[in-house]
Amino acid sequence: MKVSDIPGELEKIRQADRFRQVQDLRMVTAARGVRRDGKGYIVFSSNDYLGMTHEKEVQEAAAQAVSYGTGSGGARLTSGAVFEASDLERELAAFKHTAEAVVFNTGYMANLGILYALAGPGDVIFSDELNHASIVDGCRISRAKVIVYPHSDMKRLQELLETCDVSGQRFIVSDGVFSMDGDIADLPCLLALKKKYDACLIIDDAHATGVIGKTGRGTAEYYGASGADITVGTLSKALGSQGGYAAADEAVAAYIRNRSRPFIFSTAMPAMSSAAALAALRLLEQFPERYVGRLKENTDYMRALLRAFHIPLNDGRTPILPIILGDERKTLYFERICREKGIIVSAIRPPTVAQGTCRIRLSITAAHAKEDLETAAAVIQEAWKAVAER
Ligand SMILES: *Cc1c(COP(=O)(O)O)cnc(C)c1O
Fold it and tell me: How many Å apart are CA 138 and CA 110, to the nearest integer?
């Protein structure tokens, strides 16, 4: 494409109802936001599942750490080796029951960095078709062969593992909780396949940590089945800060620190980001019922409300609730009706999801009040009817 073609390309995106733009929104809690003009909304598009970004303890930890600098001034291997990042790594590893953890600047960079460091020519990565974009991009830059298997199709994955000729290492990579559908990977089966084919299993728990498992430890706790070689996570969702991490054994962690370009060549997060995530992690460990318990209660309540209104939902157990509408126009119309009535939901379109599977995606948080959920469910029912009648 020539740069001079851009206006025409933009017009095509608009014509397809796929144009996206940033709109100012200030989150006042995980459940409430205001526009610049002062209009307030109940928000169902935040990943701040536990409301950690507005917790007093978390904000105070960040404020205190600001005194160590608003920036880190260098990569972790140089002047950016703030104490808070190492403290956080130690406690994340304990939380995930691994020997070590390595913090990255974002979850996106964690996936790029892990796959870049560990996989290469001769290796084969088996990747679920609905894996997050950062895994897709990590597969690309790894230069390993990539085989995409149909979503959560364990039988097909086994066939592919069996029949593929691999000279190097087999990797299996999967989201723990899939970000746009909210379903949970079949970890017990992935672990069995890992064992059978001597594969390295990488589970991305970005939407699982702080969300599933009785104490919020993620997919492994949810199933009571551990053994993934690397668990990836983000600090930016339930942990209310910014950043990502890989939890792994000592050798893998050290190798990542030595071989991962996103880890080596990018300025480390400031101390406040790690301090905030650490404070959130400690709150979660201390009060699982107040956070994960509350989140589950809200999720169950919202699912029940929407079911009573005959809104079709999958039978998931996570706070990600997709309402599949199919085409772009309906999805945008639905979103607009909700917005006009003070409710923000996400209209998810390609390329985030496959053509013909456009959806409204709600994410529930522990910070929503029962009345927020009731108000939103009533608005969603109206929007559902309006879209059906159109
Ligand atoms: C959000 C997300 C990421 C990226 O994490 P960031 O910290 O937002 O960069 C990676 N993987 C999955 C599955 C995600 O949902």
Answer: 9
**Which residue's alpha carbon is at the smallest distance from atom 1 of ligand 1?**
206
Backbone angles phi, psi at 365, to 5 degrees: -125, 165
Nearest atom in ligand 1 to the alpha carbon of residue 244 is 7
User: For the segment 344-373, what is each residue's pLDDT rounded down to a tens digit?
Assistant: 999 999 999 999 999 999 999 999 999 999
Q: Which residues contact 239 (CB under 8 A, 6 or more apart)?
A: 52, 209, 210, 277, 280, 281, 284
Between the two ends of the chain, the Cα-to-Cα distance in Å is 37
pLDDT of residue 366: 98
| Residues designated catalytic | 179, 207, 237
Question: In a mutational test of the pocket of ligand 1, which residue from 48, 53, 114, 132 has the highest number of ligand atoms less than 8 Å from its CB?
Answer: 132
pLDDT in tens, 107-133: 999 999 999 999 999 999 999 999 999
272 burial via Cβ count (<10 Å: 0-12, 13-18, 19+):
buried
What was the pLDDT predicted at 88?
98
How many Å lie between the centroid of ligand 1 and the Cα of residue 135? 9
Contact, 91 vs 282, CB < 8 A?
Answer: yes
Contact 61, 275 (CB under 8 A): yes
Q: CA dist 99 to 102, 115, 119, Å? A: 11, 20, 21
Rounded distance from Cα 390 to ligand 1 centre (Å): 35
Instruction: Compute CA 106 distance to the chain's CA centroid, rounded to the nearest angstrom.
Output: 11
- 109 by Cβ neighbours in 10 Å (0-12 / 13-18 / 19+) ranks as buried
Ligand 1 center to 107 CA (angstroms) = 5
* 3 state DSSP class of 340: helix
Nearest-angstrom CA–CA distance, 355 and 383 = 22
- Tell me what the mean pLDDT of segment 215-225 comes to: 98
- Give the dihedral sign, CA 293/294/299/300: positive
Give whole-number Cα distances, 102 to 7, 92, 200, 335, in Å.
Answer: 42, 9, 18, 38
Per residue in 146-187, pLDDT (tens digit) is 999 999 999 999 999 999 999 999 999 999 999 999 999 999
Residues with CB under 6 A from ligand 1: 106-108, 111, 132, 134, 175, 179, 204, 206-207, 234, 236, 244
Cα–Cα distance measured from residue 226 to residue 207, given in angstroms and rounded to the nearest whole number = 17
